[in-house]
C-alpha cells in the first residue's frame, strides 16, 4: 500500500471516529443534560455543582462506549479511564467557569450556556482523547 492510500485510510478512519464520537457524545449529553436538569431545575441545586455531577455521569457513560465501540481499545482500562476522566473534568471546569460567568454574573439562560460550552468542550475532548487516551 502506498503512502497516499495509507494517508487516505487514516483520514477516513479519523472522520468515522469523529462521527462515532459525536453519536456517543449525544448519548452522553442525554445523560449529562438529564442529570443536570433534574438537579438544577427540579431540585434547584447550584448550577456549578449540578454541572460537575452531571458531567461525571456523562463521562462515565461515554468512556465505556468510546472504549468498546469507537476506538476499540480494551487494554489498560483503569489508566485510560483516569486519563479520560481527567481530560473530561478539565473541560468540565471550562463549562463550569462558563456557567459561573454567563449565568451567575451575566444572568444568561443556563441551558443555552451549558449547550454552547459543552459543544466547544466536546471538540477539545475528541482531539485530546484520540491523541492521548485511546492511542493504540
Automatic annotation (TrEMBL):
It is a multi-pass membrane protein. Coiled coil: none annotated. It is found in: Membrane. The chain crosses the membrane at residues 21-43, 81-103. Keywords: Membrane, Transmembrane, Transmembrane helix. Residues 20-134 form the GtrA/DPMS transmembrane domain. Belongs to the GtrA family. This is Flippase GtrA. The lineage of its organism: Bacteria, Bacillati, Bacillota, Bacilli, Lactobacillales.
